[in-house]
Fold this protein.
Amino acid sequence: MRNLPHFYDESFSFFHDVVKSKHKKRDDPGFLDRLETYYEDIDILFEEYNKLFKENKLHTVIASTVEDQQKSDLLDLYHYDNKRIQALKTLVTTIDDNRALNTCQNCTVRIVESMDHQVPKNDFPEFSVHPLNLFPSCEKCNKKKGKYWRTETGRLFLNLYLDPLPEAQYLFCNVSVEDEKVEAHFELRNNECISTELFQLLKSHYDRLELCSLFSLSCGTVISRMATYIKNHSDMLSIEQMQSITLKSNQDEKNIYGQNHWEFILQDTLITSEDFINFALTNHIQVAD
Ligand SMILES: [Zn+2]
């Protein structure tokens, strides 16, 4: 999990571009004209959103009064396949060295196939195509986030445009080898004084998206790859050499994909687990999935 670069240009221009990309509807010829009448209100509301975004206080945003027709028109503006929204997705998923990151950063397991509305579009249709409100996400995370996204004091989910992720390790993995089966369990712990507020937000995000169990269910390929690596290199390298190479390479990956990326935390745990190393050297590989 890592932060993504957010949209930097004028947010109202983005709205305007999305409107311009729309075609006249044969069954609703007044659609485009009606959108134009919303410009003034949207401009003001976008400014308010930008202010709250800058202060990282989006949980305090107040829904404006939007009539049914206006709500339906504004919701109609959002389509994942819209070329402006696809251009936004490309912009915010392009990370260092022009690398495209098409994995959902809410879970870091599934691929991006939608834009999640950080402030839900049904309650806030005015932000249905606000570029800072659109975050690339898989369908499952998007659905799980749903209507309940805040309390009186804060948000229930990370906003990875905004919330600085800690450098300190907070995701831990425990590997067990029993009856020739390897299982990995993940949990969050605050061993290194991450602020209570940030740790609570991390915990809420991971719990509500059920990430620890998702990681456990997804780790089969990583476990068999690591077991094969150990077995295939055991003639050429000592265990210490394999550990040193793996830990170094994982650190390089964490620098790109996040210090608490589950795959590299899992690999670190596997390569330093005596039980797993013995298992990899002596057993036919079988992974509990
Ligand atoms: Zn996801």
User: Anything to note?
Assistant: Residues 104, 106-107, 110, 137-138, 140-141 surround zinc ion (CB under 6 Å). Residues 171-282 form one domain. The longest helix spans residues 31-54.
